[in-house]
Amino acid sequence: MNQSLNKLILLFFCFSICLSTPSYSQFRFSQIKVQGNSTTDVKTIKSISGLKKNIPLSANDINSALKNLYSSNLFESVEVVPKGQTILIKVKENKRIRRLVFEGNKKIEDKELFPLIKSKERQPFSKAQVIKDSRIISDFYRFKSRYSARVEPKIIDRDKGFVDLVFEIDEGKILQISQIDFVGNRSFSDRQLRNIIKSKRAGLFSSFFTSDNYSEDSQEADKYLLEKFYKDNGFPDAKVIASLGGLKNGGETAFLTYSIYEGPFFRFGNLSIKSIVKGISPSLYERSIVASKGDSFNSSEIQKTLDNIKQVSVNNGYPFLIGTVDQFRNTKKKEIELLFKVIEGPKLFVEQIEISGNTHTRDNVIRREFQVEEGDAFDPSMLKRSEEKLKSLGYFDNVKVNVRQGSNSQNAIVDIAVKEAPTGSLSLGLGYSTDTDVSAQFAFSESNFRGAGQGIRLSVSGSKDNSSIGLGFKERGFLGRDVLVSMDIDYTNSKPRATGYTANLLALKPSVGFNLSTDTRVRLTYKLENIDVTGVGTSEVLKQDLGKSTRSLIDLSLSHDKRDSIIKPTKGYMIKFGSEIAGLGGDEQFVKSKASGKIYQGIYGNNIIFSTELEGGILTMNKGYSKVVDRFLLGGRSFRGFKYSGIGPRELAGGQYTIPLGGEKYAMARFAASFPLGLPRELGLYGSVFAEAGSLWDIKTDPNVAGLSDKIALRDRVLRTSIGFAMNWETPIGPLQFNWSRPQKYLSADSLEYFSLNLATRF
Fold it and tell me: Rounded distance, CA 86 to CA 31, Å?
């Protein structure tokens, strides 16, 4: 690292220490005066401020007083001004609502709308609250299937500090369902399934029913009913893997499509019951079993048996004894053996979840990240994971989850307190890495657009190796579900280091992602790409890449996450798989697949965390020959101890290994142990030792081009290894990672790297 960069890091570090040093200056005031109030009592204002005379007060106390006064919603503006021995509180009171009315609402009465909002007559007027109330009214109309409803608040100034508040409502039309389709159903017809679900197609008597009204809540009910129907009729693995709703006929009506995975058919095998609780005989519960051997698998019968076990327990004075069931599959006989067990159940339940602090983010956006709902058994591990999911959204500066006793000792109330973070940004970014040298980025983004968890972006970035511009939109909770949809358009000018290669890539990428289970997520992306390779320097091999081409790809990725923490895991594992399939149109046909798995295990109170990772990929060309932009590269951050693209096939010219070409196959193994350095945790420093091993190999060329194959060297699979030490530092200007590496097994033609640094920051 050069001297100027050292100075820059030191300057930022010193600056951050100065910012974090509290002020200890305190003052004593003999009196507190209030000015500007006309309706609010002076004592009330002083009490709200929290200021006391004749006691030491600091600048933080005065700042807290300002926050307290603004939080009361009584004042439009507040000033707290120290003058000599006096603190002067200047206020300008909010106007009060004289009259509150709704106009334009014919289908939904005032008495339904008034309880929804917090703005009230004779109460202080707050613009922020009026905006929130408008959103609440709009959401209520959506709940009533009126998706085109519009709510516009009007404020009319009146005399003596009063206003009239009018919510002008355009109710719009009810959105009705004109089409319901199913995909993947082989054992039951569409007609049978339509009779099962709650949603119905609009017909002659639509005006008399609401079941044909489009509703996101109804879709969730449909999904439940479909899965229940299948699981009650012999299909235990059945799942509605996707539900899609949208507009048709120019937005006049809606359609619903449910994608179903049926799975194999099973019958019940042997059924038995045993007690795990000392002193409790299983004979007490023998008549609880309602299923029979040979019957089609039926989840309702299993649940009924569990309910019976619970009821028998209650009737016999054991209120916390419940039933569980172990299922043993015989795939050859297509049977499932059931073992019901009587155990001690949880004694604490979630009575209520209360959310506070979200002035912008909607409650449903927060709730959908929680894996616990009212009425569920209290599970601290689920609360922790839900808290981490909220933190990982980036919508909040702080998230605190506290638990307190509910209406009795068996019930708990979960308090979720959030502090909103700025989610819209116009930012500049700088980064440094030994992979890419200095890079810069300009970005405009909003990750929580309208408080609904939607994201928009416009980004421009540049480095020595490439520059790009991109536009994007994403919706985290599409149709009210945990489904991520996105649309991205990106243009990239790529100039990989040391190749002389120049390529322009324009890509259109719509995508959808959803959970298959609590821990498993799938993402499906379609990519339409136009690539134009305009230069290859002096390379003879890369001349085959010159020209324009169009690629049409399907990119499917799956992740299965069983880590105990998504932020700082201490145990568990994560598996990822991704595959790009090109050839659905376009000029190229290939399959590019990658897979990885990583295991974590902590010891000594999780002060030392071991991790083991395996990763590999293969590129298979079905038509033509691979381009360097599609092949894999190893080195730098992906293989410490070797420079970026420092191993693998290279072009041979004049007896020298010149241009890195990448490879069509690679494999990596990484082992690491991270640990604290014995310094205060506030410094954010921790170290790790690592060992890495891998190889990059194979590249096919056109045999019709004479001598081309002879120009490629190092295409065989040769294992390389390295060991080293890393230090990670969470600095005020961004995360720093220092890597000291020592390659152990390598070839003389490999490009080695004994030290690397990565830095990224925003300002």
Answer: 5
